[in-house]
């Protein structure tokens, strides 16, 4: 498995899965969430409303993930994950790690070979980008080495994990964590 960090626009990534740093409503928002909803088009909002009506009537819990088609994105799928909000007192790195791990599990479930992540929780949710990078790189490395601790959740076909970052500072933090 190849793991890399790049600066770029996650909505333009030519990968099987892009990960959306969603809020629990799944109905769009600012930052990465808003950008993905705009780029994917109105059918993404319809799919998210269906998830809310059927599987997550109370919203997607922090640390968990759900998947929809990518619609107008280059990516075939969007995994929506709700990162912990530092400002709201959600400071568990294990919740943050679960965002990355559960996103990889869903990607494997749909047969994906490539996945692009943003710096989940490092934006409006206030987590330090170095901590997000450390946690994300640790999960990706565990998957690459088959040491994620879950016998049912192996890399199974994932060939590329790409962290798509919004700034040079964030990219540098991820490069340090991946070194």
Describe the structure.
- It is a single chain.
- With 179 residues, the protein is of the alpha/beta class.
- The chain has a single domain, classed as 3-Layer(aba) Sandwich (Leucine Aminopeptidase, subunit E, domain 1), CATH 3.40.220.
- It is 38% helix and 18% strand.
- It has helices at 31-40, 42-54, 93-109, 129-145, 168-178; strands at residues 2-7, 17-22, 65-69, 77-82, 114-117, 160-165.
- A six-stranded mixed β-sheet has the order 1-6-5-2-4-3, with helices on both faces.
- Helix 3 crosses helix 4 (129-145).
- The model has no long low-confidence stretch (mean pLDDT 94).
Detail the topology: elements first, then pairings.
Elements (H helix, E strand, L loop, with lengths): L1 E6 L9 E6 L8 H10 L1 H13 L10 E5 L7 E6 L10 H17 L4 E4 L11 H17 L14 E6 L2 H11 L1
Parallel strand pairs: 1-6, 2-4, 2-5, 5-6
Antiparallel strand pairs: 3-4
Helix pairs in contact: 3-4, 4-5
> Number of domains in the coordinates?
1
Uncertain runs are: none
Task: Describe the largest sheet.
Answer: 6 strands, mixed
Oligomer: single chain
Write down the secondary-structure element order. EEHHEEHEHEH
What key phrases describe this protein's structure?
179 residues; alpha/beta; Leucine Aminopeptidase, subunit E, domain 1; 6 strands
């Amino acid at each position: 498995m190849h793991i890399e960090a790049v600066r770029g626009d996650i909505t333009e990534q030519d990968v099987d899965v892009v990960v959306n740093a969603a809020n629990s409503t799944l109905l769009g928002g600012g930052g990465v969430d808003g950008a993905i909803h705009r780029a994917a088009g109105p059918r993404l909002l319809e799919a998210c409303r269906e998830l809310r009506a059927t599987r997550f009537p109370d919203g997607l819990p922090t640390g968990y993930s759900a998947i929809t088609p990518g619609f107008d994105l280059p990516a075939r799928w969007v995994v929506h994950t709700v990162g912990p909000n530092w400002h709201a007192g959600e400071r568990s790195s294990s919740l943050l790690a679960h965002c990355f791990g559960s996103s990889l599990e869903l990607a494997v479930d749909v047969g994906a070979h490539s996945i692009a992540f943003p710096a989940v929780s490092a934006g409006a949710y206030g987590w330090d980008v170095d901590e997000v990078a450390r946690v994300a790189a640790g999960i990706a490395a565990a998957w690459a080495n088959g040491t994620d601790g879950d016998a049912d959740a192996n890399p199974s076909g994932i060939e590329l994990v790409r962290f798509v970052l919004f700034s040079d500072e964030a990219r540098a933090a991820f490069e340090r964590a991946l070194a």
